[in-house]
Amino acid sequence: MTPRVSDRFTGQSVESARRALAAQLRSAQLDEAELDARILLGAALGLDLTGLMTQAARLLTDAEASRLAQHAQRRIAGEPVARILGTREFWGLPFRLSEATLVPRPDTETVVERALELFREQKAIHQPRIADIGTGSGAILLALLHDIPGAFGVGTDLSPNALETARGNAAALGLADRSAFVACSYLAALRGPFDLIVSNPPYIPSAEIPKLSVEVREHDPHLALDGGNDGYDAYRALIPQAAERLAPGGALIVEAGQGQARTELQGRQAVEETGHRVGAATPVHPALHGTCCHDSTLLGASPGRKGPSSPALPGPSCWPPRRCPAGAVPGPACSAAGRS
After folding, report:
1. Terminus of the chain with fewer CB atoms < 10 Å: N or C?
2. Domain residue spans in the chain?
3. Residue 94 and residue 86 in contact, taking contact as beta carbons nearer than 8 Å
4. Which of 129, 104, 4, 8 is nearest to 62 (CA)?
């Protein structure tokens, strides 16, 4: 039974409302009750931490008390704070969310870290071309574009709503002119070569999804979670397509779940089958999240074939619409590329 949320914030001071909300969240056995209370109170009042401190003694208005009660009810029902606020910080950047996107998590930043390490090692790449597969809110791609001046990136996703969210984030971050977003399955609508392909694909076995926390199970899109019976469906599709589109010296970096060491082996085999030589697969430190442990795995490709030197753009396979996978709708960038 969901604990009742007190609506008696009216007339309370900012500080007393914070304490009352934290107590309610603790009673609901929510982790980080104090932090959640401070964030939700700040959102309801439009105040940052400094504002909460300097206005601690003032009384809440009726409107503020009502907003805070609504936030509290949603959090106690299991909705994540980021969903309530509609935003989440990733790599120090703000990202808007939608019902079609995952909440970007800190452990996924290891994908960005590993990619940046690679570019520091390969200083010769002047204008790198990046593809983010299953881009969602665009967090991984836009974090990389933010930190790599001159890079151009393409994000793909099956969900038109997710792509619209990603486009909005790109515009808000001033990166719209260096990014494009395409509705398609994995890399089906793209042509290479790409210097880097990154992805946080769905990798949770279908039978495990009902066991996830309510924050994930009921609020993250299952399309972005469900990896099929064994959790490997996305890798089976993604890795061969990526290997065919990597530039000489390019790399594929994917996030993988705990115990999914087979991803590394499958990736090496897929890349080798295209004629590329595979470098050492390098697992980056695992980061614990809930019941899952994530690894960012590098599946590198060294020079093995030549590719065109033009920037990577969406390919014609996404136009006309009947060529797209079921459920995929060409976005503006894809349509323009397909018609040209």
Report:
1. N
2. 14-77, 88-339
3. no
4. 8
Range of lowest pLDDT (62-66, 101-105, 250-254, 283-287): 283-287
DSSP character string of 218-277: TTS-GGGTB--SSS-HHHHHHHHHHHHHEEEEEEEEEEE-TT-THHHHHHHHHHHHTTPE
**How many C-beta neighbours within 10 Å does residue 165 have?**
24
- Residues 6+ away with beta carbon under 8 Å from 160: 183, 329, 331
Q: Which of 104-113, 240-249, 254-263, 284-293 has the lowest mean pLDDT?
A: 284-293
Looking at the predicted structure, is the pLDDT value of residue 318 above 80? no
pTM beyond cutoff 0.85: no
Is the pLDDT at 178 greater than 70, yes or no? yes
In this structure, are residues 192 and 247 in contact, taking their beta carbons and an 8 Å threshold?
yes
Question: Between the CA of residue 337 and those of 57, 181, 319, what are the distances in Å?
Answer: 58, 12, 8
Distance from C-alpha of 162 to C-alpha of 138, rounded to nearest angstrom: 8
Tokens of 168: 């909005």
Work out whether the CA dihedral 244, 263, 205, 155 comes out positive or negative.
negative
Domain 88-339: what homologous superfamily? Vaccinia Virus protein VP39 (3.40.50.150)
Give the bridge partners for 246, in sequence order. 194
